[in-house]
Amino acid sequence: MRNIAAEVAVIGAGSAGLCAACQAAGAGAKVLVLDENRLPGGQLFKQIHKFFGSSEHQAGVRGYEIGKSLLDKAAASGAEILLESVVYGLRSDRTLGVVRRGEHFTVEAKKVVIATGAVENYLPFEGSTLPGVMGAGAAQTMINVNRVLPGRKVVMVGSGNVGLIVSYQLMQAGADVVLLCDAAEKIGGYGVHAGKIRRAGVPIALSTTVVKAEGDGEVSSVTLAKVDGRFQPVAGTEFTVGADTVCLAVGLSPMTELAWMAGCEFTFLPAFGGHVPIHGDDMQTTLEGVYAAGDITGVEEASTAMEEGNLAGVSAAAALGYLSETEAEERTARIRNRLDGLRSGPFGIGRKKLKDAQVLAMREFKREGEDSL
Amino acid sequence: MGTLRIENHPVLGPAQAGRTVVITLDGQPLEAVEGEPVAAALAAAGIRAFRTTAVRSEPRGIFCAIGRCTDCMMVVDGVPNTRVCVTPVREGMKLERQHGLAPVRKPGDPA
């Protein structure tokens, strides 16, 4: 079997992976980025809304524009991007198993950055496997990338930012969002996004969940009900709406398979999507030379994923000797500053606390290791 | 009813003009845009059930649209278990709805 040697192997050419590649290759490292898709950019190209934050976080710029400039930067950095390449294995010695167009090969890397992102959660209910029930991200891909409506009348389940933003984008694409529901009693996402869809006339049903989707071979009606304090449907409160599509915006889970396989230590942070690899300030996991960045370390946003990717790329390049200690420190201080900016405010501060917990877990892991010596 | 294709978009502008080609679904001809995902071509034609399950013969269609979930598998040009959400349309492509689990292709089998 063919083997490719790389100084830095980056798994995933999305927000985090491309930034890691730019930083490491920009510093002089030989970088190989592997992605299973036919096109790089991860989920950035379906984000047609303007990003939040300050100007240094590219606020006001639409996601796909950030994606385009990131691809230009990656091309200029000299990083090699290998597409249609599925990384199916990762060992603690930083050997990757890859299959590309039927050919199997290995990659032996001095440093690995796992930037595999996250996958949408599923919500089981009667009829939830009928065609027409799909992830909100799937609907977003269909309308903004493929330019095809997945349906005309949509029920959106979930009032987090994904549910709110995709609802608005479905309307921009010409669909009718008949209702948005959330089992929680409060809207999960930003008020500005909720306001936009409210003004467009979409009813938001809180403490309400979908109990049933029905139809002859595909969805044609959706039954919802109020939920009690333990999120159980309350009998007698059911109501049915006509809809051909149900979009599930019920959170994401970090795509951690490779980190588990390699033997990274994990911590459980439900608000971050579940089990996430613990990592230090430099994004290095408990495995020497294996870094993680972006949604795999806890589901946040593209902007934070990019900065985590930057951190991992700088750390890997510094560890390989491409950046002096001072240069690396200066760069990481700037990136951390921007990350702190993104993890502030009423929504961000909770994520900042979770990140601190993750880094603390890393310190404890290291201390235990020293104690056992 | 109008088309399901989004020809004009308030943010993204007009759709890029692609070459229209003919593919077939279970023998029936269907217009599609070259290079778009097969799943998009089917969705644009209002087709939502791509396969049926092995035990209960329940229909399945698009769920994740990014190649993760395998709900959209079809037989494409004779190759079963093909995720059509990440398979680009080629002229003359033959699609078949897949029923149940198809055997995994072995080396040497026709592609």
User: How many distinct helices of chain B?
Assistant: 1
SS-derived structural category of chain B: mainly beta
Order of helices and strands of chain B: EEEEHEEEEEE
Category by helix and strand content of chain A = alpha/beta
Largest interface: A-B, 33 and 31 residues
Largest sheet of chain B: 5 strands, mixed
Q: Number of DSSP strands of chain B?
A: 10
Mean pLDDT of chain B comes to: 92
> What letter string, H or E per element, gives the SSE order of chain A?
EHEHEEEEEEHEHEHEEEEEEHEEEHHH
Query: Kindly, what is the distance between the CA atoms of the first and last residues of chain B, rounded to a whole number of angstroms?
Result: 39 Å
Q: How much helicity do the residues of chain A have?
A: 25-40%
Write the layout of secondary structure elements.
The complex is a heterodimer of chains A (373) and B (111).
Chain A: E1 2-11, H1 15-27, E2 31-34, H2 63-77, E3 80-82, E4 85-90, E5 95-100, E6 103-114, E7 118-120, E8 133-135, H3 136-144, E9 153-157, H4 161-172, E10 176-182, H5 191-199, E11 204-206, E12 208-214, E13 221-226, E14 239-242, E15 245-248, E16 252-254, H6 257-262, E17 266-269, E18 274-277, E19 290-292, H7 302-319, H8 325-342, H9 345-371
Parallel strand pairs in A: 1-2, 1-6, 2-3, 6-19, 8-15, 9-10, 9-15, 10-11
Antiparallel strand pairs in A: 4-5, 5-6, 7-16, 12-13, 13-14, 17-18
Helix pairs in contact in A: 1-2, 1-7, 3-4, 4-5, 7-8
Chain B: E1 8-9, E2 13-14, E3 20-25, E4 28-33, H1 38-44, E5 51-52, E6 59-60, E7 73-76, E8 79-83, E9 94-96, E10 98-99
Describe the structure.
The complex is a heterodimer of chains A (373) and B (111). Chain A is an alpha/beta fold and 373 residues long. Helix content of chain A is 34%, strand content 26%. In chain A, helix 1 runs parallel beside helix 2 and helix 1 (15-27) runs parallel beside helix 7. The radius of gyration of chain A is 22 Å and the shape is globular. The model of chain A has no long low-confidence stretch (mean pLDDT 95). Chain B is mainly beta and 111 residues long. In chain B, 6% of the residues lie in helices and 31% in strands. In chain B, the strands form three sheets. Chain B has a five-stranded mixed beta sheet with strand order 4-3-9-7-8, covered by helices on one side. A three-stranded mixed beta sheet of chain B has the order 6-5-10, with no helix packed on it. A two-stranded antiparallel sheet of chain B has the order 1-2. Chain B is globular, with a radius of gyration of 15 Å. The N and C termini of chain B lie far apart (39 Å). The model of chain B has no long low-confidence stretch (mean pLDDT 92).
